[in-house]
């Protein structure tokens, strides 16, 4: 990068660190450090959550997924957006959670199920899943910067060869820890919001660059149309042969979005709203906050497909100064340098890759179409696999090579095609996405450890100063854990697949524990234990099989002669669900993918929770937990009866707490999500295609309008809207924190035994 690019990167990051330390003066107690004093406004929460949710790993994973599926599966995801809106409008889980006033999910679990040991076990499971999953974030981000900036794998410092990877991981985690240390949640909320406000114009610049350099009709559409039957990147009715990221994966995500709505709640901004209503409105605003960010991510994923496969870029350097043939060789050599440890084998692989003749794909020849199994990358991957050999170690090395090859394709490409200035903006955006995500996840894990694994075993109240010292040093400990995992853990599958199975260690059993705990009276400790054992246990077993398949399990099965019989069994079981689920033995990859394991885990957890709870049934007093009725200690929301005049307002969960502006926001979200997204862009299109199927060219125009043009208009409005709202809310947050009265007993500890937790009212 040029000095201009480095200046663009350094100045905003320095400002973010300064703001983090500035916020320390507003932290008076534990509630401030953990939950921003519970005085945050809707916009600062919403904008902060945007940055905490976006990340480098999200961008890399989305590019990896779009490279495999294009837009084909994305059409069916339109049905998930309205469901998310319903959950937001109704305040599903978030409203009741805020009513409990719990500072962590562990505190809620102890209050709801009356068991301190169960609180500890669930905290251990959720924190382990969260920390290992999130620890690959710095690892993926570090590789991103190495490949994006073209950095060497090793650097010489004082005559010693040091791995560049380790140096950058340490720098990333140090930066994240610096942001957390001064003010905890206050620092995170303010810095995430400020980074969000700075990111909005950068999204616009990146999108503008893509639009100027790539033509939808000339560059993008021809490549997206050039796919074999059953693997269309545009036609959602022609995707039956797509594997991994298919319609079944979409269904699993849909089910999980409902049943696991509250599973990560507690150690994040879900405690920070000044009222339950404000927390609910922050969730509703989340429908509009993404704006240009999602357009940018979609475009980057799609131009990766286009640049790497278009004949326009096979030999012609006029537009970007590099060809896709050169890009594949650069990528393959760099990945081989990292994934293959044997120097002789590595040198031979690199030499063979360099000898691969350049090739251009002919988009005009209908007899030669691209597919998941036969594409321009296949030659490179097959050569590497042949060179590595068909041994357990060779298969393991190839699995690592293939994963890195898929993940680092987008960063390598972006580093070669971006001009001066735009490269600096993209780099600082990635640094902000890295910091805003890693600091939040490190702090969430540290909060869970202290609140749910340390505090429950203290017999006396912890003074605020000691409490915050523990939280700060636990943050350092979690950062060190992230460092160890990032340095020694090898990720062997698609990023989304790995995060799915790793999160399933907690999410596989957590859904009924949290959701049924908030909404049912029949749920009890027996059911909760059953859900954790059957749900999380199944996910853990699947994870173990995936991690050890190529190196240990498959060779063992082959030695015993069981491969063929197991293959027949797997094919017979999955055959009724073919082509969406297709199980067959593979020497490199475990036959049951992460989404399928996750689905099985959730179903077992729900069933076992219900059965276990009803076998030991004892009604629970929810009003006491939610501070309702006779247990209310504040404003009571009047319940309204259903009438013809308020039926639509009731369906949107509009309560007397709603101001006129809140009602406008709620109706706007409903109109955009249900009438436009669900009605016009999904149901109407499905009906039209049922009567008269669209040609592929029509689908190209559809995605241009529905995924770029209309969201772009919404993005312009939301960028201005959230920039103003976020700025006002940040100022108000500081004022409210300065005026807040501290309650030292409000720190998440539970001392009295939860004995009278049953509902005596029959």
The total beta strand count reads 2
Percentage of residues in helical conformation: 55-70%
Let me know the largest β-sheet: 2 strands, antiparallel
User: What fraction of the residues are assigned to beta strands by DSSP?
Assistant: under 5%
Q: Strands of the biggest beta sheet: in what spatial order? A: 1-2
- The shape, in one word, is globular
Based on secondary structure, the structural category is mainly alpha
Low-confidence stretches: none
Could you say what the CATH architecture of the largest domain is? Up-down Bundle
How far apart are the termini? 71 Å
Number of helices: 29
Question: What do the pLDDT scores average to?
Answer: 85
CATH topology of the largest domain: Sodium/glucose cotransporter
By CATH reckoning, the class of the largest domain would read Mainly Alpha
Radius of gyration: 26 Å
Summarize the structure.
With 762 residues, this protein is mainly α. The chain has helices at residues 3-22, 30-35, 42-53, 56-69, 80-90, 94-100, 105-113, 116-149, 164-180, 185-213, 216-225, 247-259, 276-289, 292-309, 324-339, 343-354, 378-388, 392-407, 409-417, 422-454, 464-488, 495-519, 525-560, 563-574, 594-615, 622-625, 647-651, 660-691, 696-739; strands spanning 154-157, 160-163.
Features of the shown structure:
single chain; 762 residues; mainly alpha; Sodium/glucose cotransporter; two-stranded antiparallel ribbon; 1% strand; symporter activity; Na/solute_symporter; transmembrane helix
């Amino acid at each position: 990068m040029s000095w201009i690019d480095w200046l663009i990167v350094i100045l905003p990051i320095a400002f973010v660190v300064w703001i983090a330390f500035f916020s320390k003066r507003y932290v008076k107690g534990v509630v401030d450090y953990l939950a921003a004093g519970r005085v945050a406004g809707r916009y600062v929460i919403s904008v902060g959550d945007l940055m905490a949710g976006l990340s480098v790993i999200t961008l890399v994973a989305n590019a990896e997924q779009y490279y495999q599926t294009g837009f084909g599966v994305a059409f069916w995801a339109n049905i998930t957006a309205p469901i998310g809106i319903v959950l937001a409008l109704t305040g599903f889980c978030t409203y009741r959670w805020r009513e409990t006033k719990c500072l962590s999910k562990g505190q809620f679990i102890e209050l709801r199920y009356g068991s301190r040991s169960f609180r500890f076990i669930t905290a251990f499971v959720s924190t382990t899943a969260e920390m290992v999953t999130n620890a690959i974030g710095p690892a993926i981000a570090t590789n991103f910067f190495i490949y994006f900036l073209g950095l060497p794998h090793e650097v010489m410092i004082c005559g010693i060869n040091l791995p560049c990877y380790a140096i950058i991981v340490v720098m990333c985690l140090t930066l994240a820890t610096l942001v957390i240390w001064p003010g905890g949640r206050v620092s995170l909320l303010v810095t995430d919001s400020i980074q969000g406000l700075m990111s909005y114009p950068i999204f616009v610049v990146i999108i503008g660059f893509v639009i100027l350099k790539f033509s939808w009709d000339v560059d993008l559409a021809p490549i997206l149309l050039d796919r074999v039957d059953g693997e269309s990147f545009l036609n959602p009715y022609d995707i039956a042969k797509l594997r991994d990221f298919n319609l079944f994966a979409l269904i699993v995500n849909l089910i999980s979005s409902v049943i696991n709505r509250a599973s990560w709640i507690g150690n994040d901004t879900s405690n920070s709203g000044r009222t339950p209503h404000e927390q609910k409105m922050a969730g509703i605003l989340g429908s509009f906050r993404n704006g240009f960010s999602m357009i940018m991510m979609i475009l980057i994923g799609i131009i990766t497909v286009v640049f790497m496969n278009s004949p326009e870029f096979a030999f012609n350097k006029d537009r970007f100064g590099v060809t896709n043939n050169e890009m594949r060789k650069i990528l393959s050599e760099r990945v081989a340098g990292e994934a293959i440890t044997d120097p002789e084998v590595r040198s031979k692989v690199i030499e063979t890759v360099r000898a691969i003749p350049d090739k251009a794909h002919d988009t005009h020849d209908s007899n030669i179409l691209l597919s998941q199994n036969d594409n321009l990358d296949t030659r490179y991957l097959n050569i590497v696999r042949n060179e590595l050999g068909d041994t357990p170690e060779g298969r393991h090395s190839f699995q690592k090579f293939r994963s890195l090859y898929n993940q680092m394709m987008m960063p390598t490409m972006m580093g070669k095609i971006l001009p001066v200035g735009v490269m600096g903006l993209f780099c600082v955006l990635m640094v902000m996405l890295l910091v805003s995500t890693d600091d939040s996840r490190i702090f969430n894990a540290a909060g869970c450890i202290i609140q749910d694994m340390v505090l429950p075993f203290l017999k006396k109240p912890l003074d605020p100063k000691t409490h915050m010292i523990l939280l700060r040093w636990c943050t350092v400990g979690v950062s060190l854990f992230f460092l160890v995992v990032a340095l020694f853990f090898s990720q062997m599958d698609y990023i989304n697949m790995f995060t799915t199975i790793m999160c399933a260690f907690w999410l596989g059993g957590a859904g009924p524990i949290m959701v049924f705990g908030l909404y049912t009276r029949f749920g009890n400790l027996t059911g909760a234990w059953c859900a954790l054992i059957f749900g999380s246990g199944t996910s853990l077993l699947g994870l173990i099989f995936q991690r050890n398949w190529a190196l240990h399990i498959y060779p063992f099965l082959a030695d015993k002669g069981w491969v063929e019989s197991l293959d027949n069994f797997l094919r017979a079981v999955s055959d009724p669900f073919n082509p969406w689920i297709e199980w067959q033995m593979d020497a490199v990859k475990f036959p049951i993918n992460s989404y399928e394991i996750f689905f099985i885990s959730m179903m077992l957890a729900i069933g076992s929770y219900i059965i276990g709870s009803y076998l030991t049934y004892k009604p629970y007093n929810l009003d006491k937990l939610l501070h309702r009725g006779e247990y209310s200690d504040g404003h009571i929301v009047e319940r309204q009866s259903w009438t013809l005049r308020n039926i639509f307002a009731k369906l949107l969960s509009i309560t007397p707490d709603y101001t006129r502006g809140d009602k406008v926001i709620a109706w706007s979200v409903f109109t955009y999500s249900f009438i436009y997204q669900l009605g016009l862009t999904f149901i109407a299109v499905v009906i039209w295609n049922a009567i008269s199927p669209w040609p592929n060219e029509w689908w190209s125009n559809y995605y241009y309008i529905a995924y770029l043009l209309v969201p772009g208009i919404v993005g312009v409005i939301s960028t201005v809207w959230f920039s103003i709202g976020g700025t006002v809310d940040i100022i108000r947050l500081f004022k409210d924190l300065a005026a807040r009265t501290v309650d030292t007993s409000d720190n998440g500890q539970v001392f009295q035994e939860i004995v009278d937790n049953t509902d005596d009212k029959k």
